[in-house]
Design a protein that fits this description.
By secondary structure, the chain is α/β, with parallel strands linked by helices. It has 9 helices and 5 strands, in the order αβαβαβαβαβαααα. It has a 5-stranded parallel beta sheet, sandwiched between helices.
Length: 240
């Protein structure tokens, strides 16, 4: 088995991306199904039928990567092994990077849509799915569209991704994004008033990825300069 810690990949998980920090009532049923999917790893195969696959899809910025990271955090809490890899990096490497991953309880692959048109990668993911199933382990995959809309040349992979759970992730409302930003700031020990959070949302792209990236930058600047996050401070850090 390859040692995934030796791979030239970003495998370190953000410490604030958990199921508890995933805000938004609109996707709570998906969060619950995903939590149960991970928890089945603690069951003996003789106790229940294991669902080996879960496919999450949605547009960029809806929190798919967050949910993959949260699934790995839960697996760790359950004393199960996991790894989370993204095809934004994997696609530039040899498919052999997936060799041996079937020995990990939960394998998470982000942005599978990036391998459309790459027959070797589609075959490698298909083979990994089968190897994981043989070991009663699980595969969690995300993409930006439905399984059929991925238009994979390998029909068998399309079929496999449809075998388990298939769930859409919906975009949060502006109010849910506002609450999510304030909550994530609180997790970092920052106070972000409603007026400040609303200012961020009116001046930046409203997808959560951009908003959280801005929060990271503000957090670092706030620590460095020992200043509170106010509207004038945001203007200075992000827009000057």
């Amino acid at each position: 088995m390859k040692n995934t810690q030796q791979l030239a990949l970003s495998v370190q998980l953000p410490d604030d991306e958990t199921f508890q920090s995933y805000q938004g009532d609109i996707n709570q049923n998906v969060v619950e199904h995903l939590s149960q999917f991970v928890k089945q790893l603690t069951k003996e195969p003789t106790d229940m039928k294991i669902i080996h696959g879960f496919y999450l899809f949605g547009t960029e910025g809806v929190g798919k990567s967050h949910l993959l990271h949260a699934s790995c955090v839960l697996a760790s809490e359950l004393k199960k092994s996991s790894v989370c890899l993204s095809f934004s990096e994997l696609q530039h490497l040899s498919v052999e990077v997936l060799d041996g991953l079937e020995h990990i309880d939960l394998v998470c692959l982000d942005d599978v849509h990036l391998i459309a048109g790459k027959d070797n990668w589609q075959r490698a993911v298909f083979d990994l799915y089968n190897r994981l199933a043989e070991q009663n382990h699980c595969l969690l995959v995300t993409g930006d569209k439905t399984v059929n809309e991925l238009l994979f040349s390998l029909a068998d992979l399309t079929s496999r991704l449809s075998w388990g759970y298939v769930e859409p992730i919906k975009s949060l409302s502006d109010d849910e994004k506002l609450h999510a930003i304030i909550f994530r700031a609180q997790q970092r020990g920052l106070y972000l008033g409603d007026d400040v959070a609303r200012f961020l949302m009116t001046r930046l792209s409203r997808d959560m990825k951009s908003l959280l990236a801005a929060l990271d930058k503000l957090d670092n600047a706030s620590i460095r300069e020992q200043r509170k996050i106010t509207i004038p401070f945001i203007k200075e850090v992000l827009f000057d």
